[in-house]
Amino acid sequence: MTPNPITLAIIGAGNRGRETYGRWCLRHPVRAKVVAVAEPDLTRRITLAAEHSIGPEASFDSWRELLGGPSRADAIVIATPDREHAAPTIAALEAGYDVILEKPIASTADEVKAVGEAASRSTGSVTVAHVLRYTPFFSTVKRLVDEGGIGELVTIEHAERIGYWHFAHSFVRGNWRNEGLASPMILAKACHDLDLVRWLAGDRCVAVASFGGLHHFRPEQAPPGALDRCTDGVNRCPAAADCPFDAVRFYIDRVGDVAGWPVSVITDDASPAGRLAAVATGPYGRCVYHADNDVADHQVVMLEFANSVRASLTVSGLTADNTRTILLSGTRGELRGRLDTGEIELRRYLPSSAPASVGPWDRDELGRAALRGDDAIILNATPVPLPDGHGGGDDAFMTDVVARLRARRDGDPAAAAALTSLTASLDSHLMAFAAEESRRERRMVDLGD
Length: 449
Ligand SMILES: NC(=O)c1ccc[n+]([C@@H]2O[C@H](COP(=O)([O-])OP(=O)(O)OC[C@H]3O[C@@H](n4cnc5c(N)ncnc54)[C@H](O)[C@@H]3O)[C@@H](O)[C@H]2O)c1
Hints:
By secondary structure, this protein is α/β, with parallel strands linked by helices. It has helices at about 15-25, 40-50, 65-70, 85-95, 110-120, 135-145, 165-170, 185-190, 190-200, 245-255, 265, 270-280, 360-370, 390, 395-410, 420-440, and strands at about 5-10, 30-40, 60, 75-80, 100, 125-130, 155-160, 205-215, 300-305, 310-315, 325-330, 335-340, 345-350, 375-380, 445. α5 links the parallel β5 and β6. Nicotinamide-adenine-dinucleotide binds near residues 81, 84, 175, 188 and 390.
């Protein structure tokens, strides 16, 4: 590839902006180069600027300055907190930029619609970081369904099992704990899942019903004698030994060998002393029963699609695993999968009759399975251990979006269509708001036309 990288300006130099997108560019300098940054936190701004050799003339503490001046990059990456997505995205579109936008598009339905309207007026484009679509696991599931591996798809049972420690980290003590600060949990955590379910269903959603709430992480569930913090640096909470959410055990012992996420979220000093100081004084040492969290810790959503596919989505923060599982049932078979192991099991009701539309690799497997008399084929879509960054989705997403930006910039007529469109993303976000409306008002929401 001729080294003429796509130039990117990053707005929000945190975990995603710096560690995911910034580092991808450092690993692929021929494809993309970060040339400008906007970040109000001085240390983060300086760190990202130093990593990418960005001078002071292209480092800003506000996105308004970055977007207000002359054109600075081929595209803008928006990786700010949820509530800071809509305004910079609309401003970037008005300036004609292509935008790589972190999910969610915005925190409210009105803002989501405003982003859609701005995109329709702009020469620029928006690609929402629905990175799971790009994982080897979900792309294999999608291909098998589209190739007719289970006949006609009838139902989808999808679960997002967040993991008790991950939920405590991000949704009880962390950035997404409180709707006033971020978004409803079903949007913040599960807009990926709603997008996946809609993508697999292959049509728009017409009706939504949902139940859920904040069951566990509330003061009345605290063990007797629990303190407001897991430690003050010297004394431990007397309930610690019997508490699965003890921050000292988690950040210092259990992920003691990890310096990146989730430790990098709580401190820049990953030494035991640095972690202990963060837990003793920062938000990540708060008692999970006495934090200022208000988002649901579990939610069930039922969905009906225009093509009559019906789906259920269960999202729970009280699970042992941190993964996603899926079961798709069709007229000729069923497909069961699990993201963290990459395992996909395809079981056909008539094992010896591979449909002509199934790809050659499947036909081989189906043939072997038929000889063995099996009706189950087990595939590993994802090498184990799982690739970093959302099961390989982060890397594949950037590879795709940067290649498309480049093809567009260079007028390449062979530019591939994106795997995800803003229209589909807008739709999946409106499904999340409908689920929230249903959960709160205890009624089914008809999405009609
Ligand atoms: N696609 C995914 O799977 C995925 C995964 C994790 C997070 N996210 C999303 O990415 C976004 C960022 O999450 P994060 O974990 O990187 O958070 P973070 O807090 O680590 O980083 C956000 C950064 O934005 C900066 N910021 C705040 N206001 C700003 C402003 N007005 N202008 C410029 N910068 C500003 C903050 O100082 C911070 O450095 C969130 O919306 C989150 O929901 C998406």
